[in-house]
Structures are given as C-alpha cells and as structure tokens.
DNA sequence: CTGTTAGCGCATTCAA
DNA sequence: TTGAATGCGCTAACAG
C-alpha cells in the first residue's frame, strides 16, 4: 500500500519547509515562481489532496451535515434525502446519513458519533421508540453543546430548534373532507399507535373534517395499526363491522394499499363500493391497481428546507438566531381509488 | 454557544497536565486513585467525549466506511444500505452514504472527498454515466492510494478489487425459462441501454434460455428503454407488433410494472393473455395488481457481503490480500402476474 | 522570498 | 505518580 502524499513528504523531496510547500500550493505571492512551479507540478503529478481530517481539526468545521432518519426503506425519507443532498451539495456541504432503525438507542449512538466533531450540524426525524419513551435528553445535550439541530416530519414540540413539518392536520382534513364530498358515509381511518405524532395529527384532521360536516365520530372506525402484528388481520376487523366502511383513509400508503388489497379480495369494487385514500405519494400509490389517490407530502421540498434552515444556523451560530418552523403544505392527488366528484 | 469540553479544559480545571487527564480517563494504573476519581467524575458530569477528528487524525483511521450509490430512491439500493449498516455497525464502523445521481462527475467528487482521510474504505455501485464513458481512472487512483474498494451490483471488470454481484445471467435465464415453461411463445424483454452491464447480462440470460429451448431470437422483442423518454410510448411499440408478445420480462420492477399497466389498459388479461415477470423484489411488485412475479435479488445479503469483504481488506491492508468476487444467487418469486405451471 | 513556531485535540513515549 | 515532548497534517502569524 502506498500511503498518501502529504505536505511533509513534498517538503522533504525539495528540501524546503512544510509551510513553503503549503504556500506554494496556495499560489501565494510570497513564494518565488520557480519554486511554486516545481512544487505544484510535483503535487499535481502525485495527486496531492490536503487531508480533510487535518483541515477539519484545524478549522473546527467539517463542511458536512449529518442526517438521522428512522428507516431508509421508506420512499418518503428517500425523497427527503434527495432534497437534502441537492441543496447541501450546492452549498459545498457533504451529507452523512445514519439510520436509527426507529430505535432510541441507535438514535443516541448516532447522535453521539456525529456530535463529536464529525459534522457541523444535524438533521433528524425522530425514532418511534424515542417518541414512545419521551426521552429527549440527547437532543438537549446537542443544543447545549451548540451544535445546530433541525428536526423534520417527526419532531418534538418541547425541543427548541428549527423544524420542518408536513401540515399533517390539514392533510388529514383534506383527505377526509374529500371522502365526504364524494359521498362516503362511513369513513374509517387506519392510523398509527398514539405515540406517533404525525399519525395523531392526521387523526385530528380526520375528526375535524367529520365534525365540520356534522358526521358523528365513531370509535369503531378508528383502527390503530400495530405493525408488529399481522396487518391484514387487523384490517379484517373493520370489514367485519355491522356497518362496514364505504371509505378508508390510510395515514400512509402502505396501510392504504393493504386496505385496498383486502377490500378487493373480499369482492368490493374500488372505488364503486368503497373509496380509499392514502398519505405520501410513493411508488406503491402510482403502480397499484387501481392507482391510489393520496395526500402528497413533498418530501423533496422538506429536505431542501431543512438544509436551508440548518445552514442558516451554522452560519449565525454565534449571534442569537431565531429558530424557525416551516410547514410544508400537502396536496390531494386524485387517482382511481376514489370516486369522481 | 458553549464549546465542547476538551482534555485541555479539564486539565486547566484541576491544574494538571493534559496527559494526566488523558491517562486518568483511560483509568491508567499510572494515575493515583484520588486524581482519577475526581477527573472521571468531572468528565462524566460534563459529558466529555473525545473529539473524533483528533482521534482519527492520530490513529490514521476513522472507523467509518463510505458508500457511493447511484440513487437512493431505488428499493434495491435501500436494501443494500440496510445490509451494509447492519454488519458495519456490528463491527463498530459507521457508514457514510453518498449519491452519484448516476453522474460521472458527482461520483468522482464523492470519491475524492471520501478518499481524503474521511473513511477507511469505500463501497461503490458504479454510476451509469461512468459505465458509459468507460472512464475509470478515479477507481485506479483510489486503489493506488491503498484505500480498500469493494464494488457491488454495477461493477467494472477491469478494475481489480473485491466485488459482490447478482447472478444476473442466471437471473435472466431463470426468468425467461419460467416464462417458456408456462407456455409463452413470444417473450419480449424490457432492458436497459447497452452500456449498463447488469441489463446486458440479464439479456444474455434471456438469450440463453431461448436458445436452450430452441426458440429463435427475435430482435423485435428486445426493447432497450431510454429513461429520458416517455416509457409508456416505448412499450407501446411492443404491442403494435404484428405478433405482439405473450410474455414480458422486465429487467427491473419499474419496467415490468409499466408493461403490466399498459397491457391491462389495452384490455389484456394478466396473466391469462400475457404473463409478466420483473427483477428485484420491491414494494411495487408486492402491491401491484395483480402482484408481480419477479426475480428476487437479495439486496440485504449483498450489502452484508460487501462490508465483510471490505473489512477484510481494511484489516489485511498490508499483507497482500486476495480480492474476492462473491456472487449472490437469485430466486424466482412467483405471484399472480404469471400463469401457473 | 523562506522558515520557525504555535495550535487544532488526542495518545504515547520517555523523563523526572 | 505526574508531566513534558512528540507527532498526526495542515495553516497562519510572525521572524528572518
């Protein structure tokens, strides 16, 4: 293995000091043309590149931002990351992605690792387990240590930092309202357990829409999916009701897809007998049959905004910068799984 | 902003030397119990964590591995990354993910950045543009500089490094053979442009299967998709043939899904009139209607193997370690889009 | 025009 | 038992 070329080695080669080399490579006017030329030529020939670690240590910054997401196998997060990459790169920053796998412990480990000088700032979408445990001290530590933090999508209200979120309340409302408008009378919602904030907000939006249309809320139509158990089995209960639903709102596309699959298997026609609406515009929605109407979440935009906020904080680190919360609106994308108006 | 606590600060606090603190925190026997105790307590209270940059610089290693993938919005890559994370973490390594966006330039930039001391080794799946340009000097430089490199899925034969690949040839064969077995007479293939190796290999497998069954190869049934153009339009040509296909093999699940969508729109019954088979077992395959039969690619396993190979190389860096090539076999997953045997 | 020195944060060898 | 010195690779202020 050839070890990398360093200033020191170049210096030895020409029998000059390290700083001479450093300056020569920066094309400093302090150095004679002659020396500069030969040093530059030599460096180029050997593909000299300053060692990032040394630079980072010296400058006390790394020009990279860390991202911690629960799962990468989710289309939404994948879109967010693309958005993050785009604007980070444009601003000369690199991106380091870590996964918490929705585990509190892994989230803490990743944060610790990133916080120790590895990145200039961190973007997080909180792990489910962290939301469940409500143990947020690692975020507080981070902020206390002066490392800029931006949360997106799954955020913690109590933590004071910039945030980017989907208008989940509104999204839930939009979805439900649309189902009502096309004539659904019994609208079920497939949502997450209570501790998942975004699920809760979408549920709130659902309730608001019902109330707004004077439709009584029926507890039986709320199904909180436990992902550790068989999802189909859980959906079954909905269709076993005395009065089964004629409309279903799934708070993510997987739930909606499962519901649609089950309904069709039971002989329901979608959307004639039952309309189904999802959340997040992923590939499943586009390729399922019938294609799935859904509330689009604009993951790309969220990622972009998150970086913008973070870079602001990184630059204004000393002055007292005001934390901001950006809300990204949702859109209804109507496809085949819901009846036409 | 409170700046992070360092050995220096602790040293000043107790009016001892930095090295004393360093040793105390390592519970060295050289330091008196008394001093150790108070220093450790202090460090704990202030959440002291050694600065990674400094450690890395000193140790000349970072305990992180870099991954460069073309796109993150692909289910396959997402699975690979999960596999990589799993075994990397288990071995105390962190993972840094970069995207080349299938661009040669971004691939080079990312590699340069990772190579400058940021990571101990790199795992790559080559960008399309790089395959097209056949410009591989950045890989050679990397190897020349002694940085371990492992390629997966989209690999370059000429570059000498460890590799993990899907048995694309066999996968293509399996898929085609199955279509033949269930009675398809005119089997079309939806593949990539020539320069994409994996597409080519799957096409080879397709040809082999035809030959093996004494079915003449028909150029008209080979459609090389240009992703920059409208995909549906391109698929249309296949169905406008005098003798349209009764079986379609798509070299990835998107192509297969598009084909199925189009066929159904034209009134074909899948699988009665036409059988469709994809490659890569992603979400689309599972949730489309009918569900898509496919050649499973085991992305997770590939990721795991890639890290294993890389870690080997990192450890045996000085000795002359033999590069290995691991082939991950494919499996046929039969669902509803192909006729039963 | 060139070199010396100091420092970023840490670990380690050697000296006291 | 403690500390001073050295080095990882680099830059920048300051001397010469």
Number-wise, the strands of chain A total 12
Q: Tell me what the CATH architecture of the largest domain in chain A is.
A: 3-Layer(aba) Sandwich
Mean pLDDT of chain A: 93
The H-level CATH homologous superfamily of the largest domain in chain A, spelled out, is Response regulator
Structural Rg of chain A: 26 Å
Number of helices of chain A: 14
Tell me the major beta sheet of chain A. Answer: 6 strands, parallel
Q: Overall 3D geometry of chain A? A: elongated
Tell me about this structure.
2 copies of one chain form a homodimer. Chain A has 3 domains: 7-50, no CATH class; 62-166 and 299-328, Response regulator (Rossmann fold, 3-Layer(aba) Sandwich), CATH 3.40.50.2300; 168-298, 3-Layer(aba) Sandwich (Rossmann fold), CATH 3.40.50. Chain A is 45% helix and 16% strand. Chain A contains 14 helices and 12 strands. In chain A, strands 2-1-3-4-5-11 form a 6-stranded parallel β-sheet, sandwiched between helices. In chain A, helix 2 packs across helix 3 (33-45). The first copy, chain A, is elongated and about 90 Å long. At the A-B interface, helix 4, helix 5, strand 2, helix 6 and helix 12 of A face helix 4, helix 5, strand 2, helix 6 and helix 12 of B. Chain A binds a DNA duplex (16 and 16 nucleotides) through residues 6-8, 16-20, 22-23, 26, 29-32, 35, 50-51, 53-60, 117.
């Amino acid at each position: 293995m050839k070890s990398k070329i360093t200033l020191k080695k170049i210096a030895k080669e020409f029998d000059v000091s390290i700083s001479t080399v450093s300056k020569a490579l920066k094309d400093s006017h302090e150095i004679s043309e002659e020396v500069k030329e030969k040093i530059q030529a030599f460096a180029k020939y050997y593909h000299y590149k300053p060692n990032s670690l040394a630079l980072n240590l010296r400058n006390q910054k790394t020009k990279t931002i860390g991202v911690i997401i629960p799962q990468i196998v989710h289309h939404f997060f994948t879109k967010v990351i693309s958005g993050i990459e785009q604007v980070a790169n444009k601003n000369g920053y690199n991106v380091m992605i870590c996964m918490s796998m929705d585990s509190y412990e892994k989230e803490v480990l990743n944060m610790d690792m990133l916080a120790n000088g590895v990145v200039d700032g961190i973007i997080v979408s909180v792990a489910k387990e962290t939301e469940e445990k409500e143990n947020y001290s690692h975020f507080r530590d981070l902020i206390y240590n002066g490392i800029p933090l931006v949360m997106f999508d799954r955020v913690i209200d109590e933590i004071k930092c910039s945030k980017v979120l989907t208008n989940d309340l509104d999204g839930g409302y939009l979805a439900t309202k649309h189902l009502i408008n096309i004539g659904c009378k019994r609208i079920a919602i497939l949502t997450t357990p209570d501790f998942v904030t975004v699920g809760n907000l979408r549920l709130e939006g659902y309730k608001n829409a019902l109330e707004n249309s004077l439709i009584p809320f029926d507890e039986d139509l709320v199904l909180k999916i436990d992902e550790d158990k068989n999802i189909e089995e859980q959906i079954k209960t909905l269709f076993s009701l005395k009065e089964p639903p004629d409309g279903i709102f799934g708070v993510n596309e997987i739930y909606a897809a499962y519901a649609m699959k089950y309904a069709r298997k039971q002989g329901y026609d979608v959307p004639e007998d039952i309309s189904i609406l999802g959340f997040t515009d992923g590939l499943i929605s586009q390729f399922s049959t019938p294609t799935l109407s859904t509330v689009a979440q604009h993951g790309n935009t969220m990622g972009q905004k998150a970086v913008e906020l973070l870079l602001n904080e990184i630059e204004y680190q000393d002055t007292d910068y005001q934390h901001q919360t950006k809300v990204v609106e949702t859109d209804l994308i109507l496809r085949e799984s819901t009846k036409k108006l």
